[in-house]
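S.,

Sequence below, as promised.
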Amino acid sequence: MLFRSALAQIKKKEFEKATELAPQIANLPRRAVVKIAIAQGLPDDQQQARFDLLTEVERELRKEEPSANVAKILLGRVALIAPLDRNQGLVALEQSLQAMNKLDHFDLKNSAAPKLGIKGSWRSESLADIPRIGFSFRSAIEPLIATEFENLLNLTDTLKVREFRGLAQLEIARLFLEKH
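The prediction came back faster than expected:
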């Protein structure tokens, strides 16, 4: 209930109310999505607040067991932190890739928001997918592609699963060619 209420406040641009609700959300991935949504909605003159929220997301998700949802949320964090600070964006991407390395399966091409609803209730899961903030690998690398092409490729070498690594490198190459 708090999760949906916080998302509704964000939609109404009531960021202070959403910020008050966020710490009350017990589920860490849901709380992280709310903080990411707040960070995305903040005006450009509040970059430090945006950066602080994104740092909190990373700190809180360290406590969470690795999952596809956590990896997607970390990719969403990269998409927002990279335009603020490229170096932090690369570090955040490395953390995302480390989370993926702990998974047996992760679909790099899936750009859907993480499923944070009640398990088994498709209606709940789809309603909880409201924030579409760029939870994909492509969204994460896009702000970095123009200046950090080689670093992005080098980071993908850390992916243990060969298929992940190949798909990630292919996506980087595609995006680079589209932009240049």
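Residues 124-129 have pLDDT under 50 and may be disordered.

Coffee later?
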